[in-house]
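Methods — Computational structure assignment.
A single polypeptide chain was analysed. Its primary sequence is given first, followed by the predicted tertiary structure written as structure tokens.
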Amino acid sequence: MLFESNSAKETFDFGLELGKKAVPGQVICLDGDLGTGKTVLTKGIAAGLGITEPVVSPTFTIVQIYEQGRIPLYHFDVYRIDDPDEMEEIGYREYFYGNGLTIVEWSGLIEDILPRDAMRIRLSKDASKGFDYRRIECL
């Protein structure tokens, strides 16, 4: 599936719809260069789950947990993970196979430990289509 966004709001709204359809135990992997909208998309997903608190990228904490929605949201940013074994220390299985929705930004860095049925989304820019354009591919 391909979605083309021309604004942060459209990217957020795409995420909102994903969040409304999310189910416990689901893992969504987000990949793309810096500034492609991974966190904006995550904010939309969180809103679709009914989460109203501010959602920020957990770049330095690796995982941020939001429990106020209809199901918990476990938001991972693994950009700073040097070795997938570091995920063991965090107890990733508890999240990936738990009762909430797990979002993993920069998932390509931990490919070997991702569930096979994870939804994979690739975000990219195309400057020729405008500064705010984003291509969102669900693989």
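Note: DSSP finds four helices and seven strands in the chain.
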